From TrEMBL:
Pfam families: DAP_DH_C. This is Dihydrodipicolinate reductase. Residues 141-346 form the 2,4-diaminopentanoate dehydrogenase C-terminal domain. InterPro entries: DAP_DH_C (IPR045760), NAD(P)-bd_dom_sf (IPR036291). Transmembrane segments: none annotated. SUPFAM superfamilies: NAD(P)-binding Rossmann-fold domains.
Length: 352
């Protein structure tokens, strides 16, 4: 993985995850930001450092895809809110490796047609594609695979996430994408747009974990239910009226032997109390292993985030899980890469 020069990176999209990524890529001497793609005219032509909230770096953001793909770069850090497979294929064919926190953690679960198309693009460009993030990408796949080494037998494995979204900055994701603030009847009749994206990404992650543990997937399902605000709530991304959606409980499940064996469970909230009240804990991730032995593993931030935004640390985890894998992805043979075939990443210059 040793490099005689910084890894040259193009940042693709400058939302909250893209901004965090750029700040790290600029601060870490192992990397160099050489280009940046943005979707809005407002950001087009502006210095990437300024868009990330730091000093100018002398690189201007652009909406000119051709100009970006003509650059000499080792990797694209692809972090839009919604992925565009045609765009990804175009990037790969241009000869640039791609890491992303937006899915593609386990392309074999996507179906043969899409998997083969992505693999073909990797081979044409002589590059690799790797998907990561906090969950999916780490908490639900790499972390339990690691702790499974301590088990003699696993009867059931639950990956649980508690997300506090009160200070999340993106109205596009929280309200338009996930449907917070809508009436629960309306949400059930017309599920949120992001559920389709999450259905793909969480299926990949839970299939990766099942495959890594040697569990045959006999069935797979997804269930969810909303919770409503017990008062009017104002959060960073907007306002939620009493009786409208302010919480969600979601489960993705792999079945074997007539029962769920691997379960991804997420509790998301916009207030301390909702109806129903599921007894929210602090924002954290936890693994519950039932078997021989039965044990729990959990991790959570140890300090409040900027302006009290505890979710900020989760967004850093999401961004870094992909960015810190760039060296091993660039060094890997061309093709679709996952946690099951990549070596353990050794993130460069974290102590600096």
């Amino acid at each position: 993985m040793a490099s005689t020069r910084p890894w040259r990176v193009i940042q693709w999209a400058m939302g909250s995850i893209g901004q965090i990524s750029v700040r790290h890529l600029v601060d870490n001497p192992a990397f160099e930001v050489v280009g940046c793609y943005v979707t809005s005219a407002e950001k087009d032509g502006r210095d990437v450092g300024e868009l990330a909230g730091i000093d100018p770096i002398g690189v201007l953001a652009t909406r000119d895809v051709e100009a970006l793909l003509a650059l000499e770069a080792d990797c694209v850090n692809y972090a839009p809110l919604y992925v565009d497979v045609d765009e990804i294929v175009r990037i790969l064919r241009s000869g640039k490796n791609l890491v992303t926190p937006s899915g593609f953690t386990y392309p074999p679960a996507l179906g043969a047609a899409l998997r083969d198309r992505l693999e073909e693009a990797c081979q044409q460009g002589g590059v690799s594609l790797f998907g990561s993030g906090i969950h999916p990408g780490f908490a639900g796949d790499l972390l339990p695979l690691t702790f499974a080494r301590l088990s003699s037998r696993i009867d059931e494995l639950v990956v649980q996430e508690v997300g506090d979204f009160r200070n999340h900055p993106s109205a596009a994701m929280m309200f338009d994408g996930l449907g917070f603030g809508r009436h629960p009847d309306d949400l059930k009749a017309d599920p949120p747009r992001m559920f389709a994206t999450m259905g793909r990404t969480f299926k990949e992650s839970i299939y990766l974990l099942a495959d890594g543990l040697g569990i045959e997937v006999e069935d797979y399902d997804f269930t969810w239910e909303p919770a409503v605000a017990v008062r009017d709530v104002t959060v960073r991304a907007g306002s939620i009226k009493q009786g409208h959606v302010a919480g969600m409980r979601l489960e993705w499940r792999v079945w074997n032997g007539g029962k769920p064996v691997v379960i991804f469970r997420s509790y998301w909230r916009m207030d301390d109390v909702t109806e129903p009240d599921w007894g929210y804990e602090n924002a954290k991730y936890a693994l519950y292993f039932t078997g021989l032995p039965s044990f729990r593993v959990n991790y959570e931030p140890t300090e409040p985030g900027p302006d009290g935004d505890i979710g900020y640390w989760g967004r850093i985890w999401t961004a870094m899980a992909a960015v810190n894998a760039i060296p091993v992805v660039v060094a890997a043979p061309p093709g679709l890469r996952t946690h099951l075939d990549l070596p353990v990443a050794q993130p460069p210059h974290l102590h600096r």
